[in-house]
């Protein structure tokens, strides 16, 4: 085992130990470089600047050095979101490398903008070879900034990059076989596939589509369909492509969610991107975009509530408040309209523009009339199957009965309707609908039945007993085909169940189960053929001869055992054995060959085990799974899942759209009757084709041609103007939808972000950076104070006039530092952190949602206060003020209480934020309190923050003055100076706690002077 880690030496002192060593050691950093990276990590602007200056002067620091994690100073600053340090590093021309990609991955918008505006230095620059090697990069070569930003779906960063004129390589078609694709796949197939996936993942970004596409809905449709097709080719990445396809579908649906009025919804659903499209003024609701959504199988878009509401309004046109009516009134209305469908059809044939003619064109009325016509057809089929008309059964070619003559117009009408539908929609779109295939089979069976009956009527005139007819007699075949066609006709009624909310999901479940049955039959047929071939090979010799055959009146018996004699008989026997209709004696043979019987019985038993136990149960499980995907029952009530609702609404929309289309108004058999409108159109067409042009005079033709040309030009201009107007309206609506979508997306992201560890780290970084800056100012002030001692001694006469003013200024400077304390306290107070009864900081889960919603406000407020007070402290010169105040007291006087307390307050805020980071959920245990509503956050050990100063720091966060001690009540006392308690003094303190709203301090025997602490807004832990 030790040899796996390290080559064992023969002189190893411990044979039972595995020696370990670092086999991939890296160069160690110098102390100066460690301080340099540490300053960048802590946000010490002055320290970073000093290190960069030393690197330029002494060349003792490699400004492009990396820490053990491989991060350069620029990457560390990007992770900490310290924009000032990033700007300083860029001004020093540090190596940028993949810093832009890291900033995009961290979604630091400010850093991305700085890096985009950064101009790279001209000339050669010494760059570490490790950074130039793509093998050590965290990003593959195909990951560009815009691709990575699209992966992150960051709208602001994508907008910055698009304004810079970036581009994304256009992916080749799914089954592209060009030289570039072939060569790329041969060189590195994995990189080729991953590169294609990364590009499509970027193109499927909702933010990128919303920002760069003129028609984002159409782009989402096409991209979703392309990704779905690509998932069928790239089987290795099928789940990824399907997820991207679903993401595009959700994006189109979310855009439609942003519509606020019926006008916007109509503009979206009626838009047609074809510039030559003509809008029918009589039919303003063409719903071209909805038809395109159905074509691309955008089920989420079609099932969107706004879209369904508009469709329901169009469907029940002329019946306001239909859904609110009583079910009895609805049933009576439907029955009345269904019984009157012949009258309404005749009215439409005679006067199509009349009140009744317009009434039957409404979608709901058209649906009722077509349904009533089909139910009448099924009733006629039932009468035909009952043979209510007596006929000569021995007639070989019987003439059609009266019922069959009545059924014939319906069959012709069905065939004519299917021909028109195929002509209007096209062959491919017609074939894609399974119900059309069923109609095609049904009509083909009826045509074959009619043809065979005609052949039998013409060829066979005489009578003959049926027992003497041959097996393939035309009349017998026609009767069999007619019976099968009747079954298909009755099952075709299931398609109408889609209109009902209760039967619709059941019908969809049945359709999915049929797919499972087809998959099962493929495997079952393979098993059936395998065992049928084996059993037939074993038993073909033992076939019962015709002489020895015992007639059992068509029933299988022991003496007539030909179950496995032929392949066809074997297939039948094995199939019926699934239903228990075959006995075990079929494996017996007349010569008692026990071995043959044993092998046959074993094969027959194995077949039953495989087919009944394995395959049949597998089929049941598959069908149950398909049903569960559509309908889910919970408890006593039936709850339709979201998936079931989407599937049913999509199927119902396809049914509704078939009745929204122009044409097909009359139900069968009235659709085969030529209407006056159709006759007029036919005459016009024949006149244009057959009428000779020489009958018209030349002048008349010239005038008509000029007039026609003018009319056509006007129509073309009017059509172009209408298209421009509609396109402008559509673009305005899309612009508003995109704005609302982006705003909702950003708002949802902020709400879901929650209070995380990164937020506390950002606040800690801001406070830490402010701390080092203030400490630098204080150090400068102390040096200036020593230099100004002589000047203060010379101006002792004027000290009394200025000491009060300077003391007040010093107090103001110290109070300004306390804003860090207040910002951190405000953040913690508004966050879901609270005190338990025993004084432990806990995380309140009940208020977590509210605190998450206000997270960005807290962060922006804290940062604004920090930077505002930073500027104020700079303008006041905190160090200079403290120095002047100290000089006013005398060369050997101690600094004022506020000036001395400033570092204590600042470091107390830093330490408290550090403790909050350690107490975040997931880093501590759970509270065992009642209900488990809160999680206790254990206190973190006190961190020593006095490394940058000359005096030690107390565990409460304040610096201990010389000669003083840290007290446990939150106050540090020393002679001549006092400071407020560092952080988190709650307004609701225990009743036995002393009143600490004021702190008192004693200066050189002077009376106690109160110092108000309400401005700190702190809370005690």
From TrEMBL:
Membrane topology: Multi-pass membrane protein
GO biological process: regulation of cytosolic calcium ion concentration
NCBIfam families, per the entry: trp (TIGR00870)
Top-level lineage group: Eukaryota
Compartments it resides in: Cell membrane
Originating organism: Petromyzon marinus (Sea lamprey)
Keyword Transmembrane helix among UniProt keywords: yes
Region (Disordered): 788-810, 916-1021
Keywords from the UniProt entry: ANK repeat, Calcium, Calcium channel, Calcium transport, Cell membrane, Coiled coil, Disulfide bond, Ion channel, Ion transport, Membrane, Repeat, Transmembrane, Transmembrane helix, Transport
Coiled coil: 227-254
Protein name: Short transient receptor potential channel 4-like isoform X1
Pfam families in UniProt: Ank, Ank_2, Ion_trans, TRP_2
Domain Transient receptor ion channel: from-to ranges: 176-238
Coarse class of the protein's main subcellular location: membrane
Gene Ontology molecular function: any one: inositol 1,4,5 trisphosphate binding
């Amino acid at each position: 085992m030790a040899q796996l880690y390290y080559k064992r030496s023969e002189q190893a002192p411990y044979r039972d130990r595995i020696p370990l060593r670092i086999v991939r050691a890296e160069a160690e950093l110098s102390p100066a470089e460690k301080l340099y990276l540490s300053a960048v990590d802590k946000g010490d602007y002055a320290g970073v600047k000093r290190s960069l200056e030393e690197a330029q002067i002494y060349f003792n620091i490699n400004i492009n050095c990396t820490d053990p994690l491989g991060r350069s100073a620029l990457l560390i600053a990007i992770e900490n979101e310290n924009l000032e340090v990033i700007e300083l590093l860029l001004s020093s021309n540090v190596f940028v490398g993949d810093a832009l990609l890291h900033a995009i991955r961290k979604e630091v918008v400010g850093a991305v903008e700085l890096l985009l505006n950064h101009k790279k230095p001209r000339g050669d620059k010494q760059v570490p070879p490790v950074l130039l090697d793509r093998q050590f990069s965290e990003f593959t070569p195909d990951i560009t900034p815009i691709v990575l930003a699209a992966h992150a779906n960051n709208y602001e960063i994508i907008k910055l990059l698009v304004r810079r004129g970036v581009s994304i390589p256009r992916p080749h078609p799914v089954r592209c076989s060009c030289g570039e694709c072939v060569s790329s796949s041969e060189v590195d197939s994995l990189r080729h596939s991953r590169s294609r996936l990364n590009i499509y993942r970027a193109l499927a970004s909702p933010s990128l589509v919303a920002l760069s596409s003129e028609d984002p809905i159409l782009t989402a449709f096409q991209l979703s369909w392309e990704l779905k097709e690509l998932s069928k080719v790239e089987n290795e990445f099928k789940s990824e492509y399907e997820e991207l396809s679903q993401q595009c579908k959700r994006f189109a649906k979310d855009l439609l969610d942003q519509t606020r009025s019926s006008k916007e919804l109509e503009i979206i659903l009626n838009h047609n991107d074809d510039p030559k499209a003509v809008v029918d003024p009589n039919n303003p609701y063409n719903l071209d975009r909805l038809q395109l959504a159905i074509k691309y199988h955008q089920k989420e878009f079609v099932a969107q509530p706004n879209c369904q509401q508009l469709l329901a309004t169009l469907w029940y046109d002329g019946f306001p408040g239909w859904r609110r009516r009583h079910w009895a009134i609805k049933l009576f209305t439907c029955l009345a309209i269904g019984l009157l469908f012949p009258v309404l059809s005749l009215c439409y044939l005679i006067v199509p523009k009349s009140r009744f003619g317009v009434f039957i064109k409404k979608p709901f009325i058209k649906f009722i009339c077509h349904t009533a016509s089909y139910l009448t057809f099924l009733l006629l089929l039932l009468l035909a199957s009952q043979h209510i008309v007596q006929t000569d059964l021995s007639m070989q070619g019987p003439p059609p009965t009266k019922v069959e003559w009545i059924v014939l117009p319906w069959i012709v009408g069905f065939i004519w309707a299917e021909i028109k539908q195929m002509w209007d929609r096209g062959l491919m779109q017609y074939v894609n609908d399974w119900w059309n295939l069923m109609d095609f089979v049904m009509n083909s069976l009826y045509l074959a039945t009619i043809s065979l009956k005609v052949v039998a009527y013409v060829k066979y005139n005489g009578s003959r007993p049926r027992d003497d007819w041959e097996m393939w007699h035309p009349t017998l075949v026609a009767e069999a085909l007619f019976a099968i066609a009747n079954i298909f006709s009755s099952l075709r009624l299931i398609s109408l169940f889609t209109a009902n909310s209760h039967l619709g999901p059941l019908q969809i479940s049945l359709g999915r189960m049929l797919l499972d049955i087809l998959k099962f039959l493929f495997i079952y047929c393979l098993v059936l053929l395998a065992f049928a071939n084996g059993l037939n090979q074993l038993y073909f010799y033992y076939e019962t001869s015709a002489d020895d055959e015992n007639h059992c009146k068509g029933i299988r018996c022991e003496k007539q055992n030909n179950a496995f004699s032929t392949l066809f008989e074997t297939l039948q026997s094995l199939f019926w054995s699934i239903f228990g209709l075959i006995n075990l004696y079929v494996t017996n043979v007349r010569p008692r060959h026990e071995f043959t019987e044993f092998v046959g019985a074993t094969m027959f038993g194995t077949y039953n085990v495989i087919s009944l136990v394995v395959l049949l149960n597998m089929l049941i499980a598959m069908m149950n799974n398909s049903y569960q995907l559509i309908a889910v029952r919970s408890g006593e009530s039936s709850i339709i899942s979201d998936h079931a609702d989407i599937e049913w609404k999509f199927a119902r929309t396809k049914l509704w759209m078939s009745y929204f289309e122009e044409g097909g108004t009359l139900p069968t058999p009235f659709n085969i009757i030529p209407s006056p409108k159709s006759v007029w159109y036919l005459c016009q067409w024949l006149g244009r084709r057959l009428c000779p042009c020489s009958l018209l005079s030349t002048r008349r033709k010239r005038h008509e041609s000029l007039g026609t040309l003018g009319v056509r030009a006007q129509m073309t201009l009017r059509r172009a103007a209408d298209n421009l107007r509609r396109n402008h309206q559509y673009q305005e609506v899309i612009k508003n939808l995109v704005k609302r979508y982006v705003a909702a997306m950003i708002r949802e992201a902020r709400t879901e972000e929650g209070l995380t560890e990164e937020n506390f780290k950002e606040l800690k970084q801001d406070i830490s950076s402010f701390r080092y800056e203030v400490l630098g100012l204080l150090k400068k002030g102390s040096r200036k104070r020593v230099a100004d001692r002589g000047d203060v001694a010379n101006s002792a006469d004027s000290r009394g006039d200025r000491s009060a003013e300077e003391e007040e200024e010093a107090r103001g400077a110290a109070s300004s530092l306390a804003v860090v304390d207040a910002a951190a306290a405000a953040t913690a107070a508004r966050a879901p952190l609270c005190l338990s009864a025993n004084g432990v900081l806990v995380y309140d889960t009940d208020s977590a949602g509210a605190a998450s919603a206000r997270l960005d406000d807290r962060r922006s407020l804290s940062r604004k206060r920090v930077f505002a007070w930073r500027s104020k402290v700079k303008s006041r010169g905190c160090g200079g003020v403290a120095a002047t105040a100290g000089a006013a007291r005398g060369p050997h006087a101690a600094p004022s209480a506020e000036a001395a307390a400033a570092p204590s307050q600042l470091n107390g805020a830093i330490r408290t934020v550090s403790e909050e980071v350690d107490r975040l959920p997931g880093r501590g245990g759970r509270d065992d309190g009642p209900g488990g509503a809160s999680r206790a956050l254990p206190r973190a050990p006190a961190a020593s923050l006095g490394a940058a100063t000359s005096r030690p720091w107390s565990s409460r966060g304040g610096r201990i003055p010389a000669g003083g001690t840290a007290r446990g009540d939150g106050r540090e006392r020393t002679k001549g100076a006092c400071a407020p308690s560092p952080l988190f003094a709650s307004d609701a303190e225990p009743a036995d706690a002393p009143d600490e709203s004021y702190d008192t301090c004693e200066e050189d025997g002077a009376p106690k002077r109160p110092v108000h602490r309400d401005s700190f807004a702190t809370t005690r832990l």
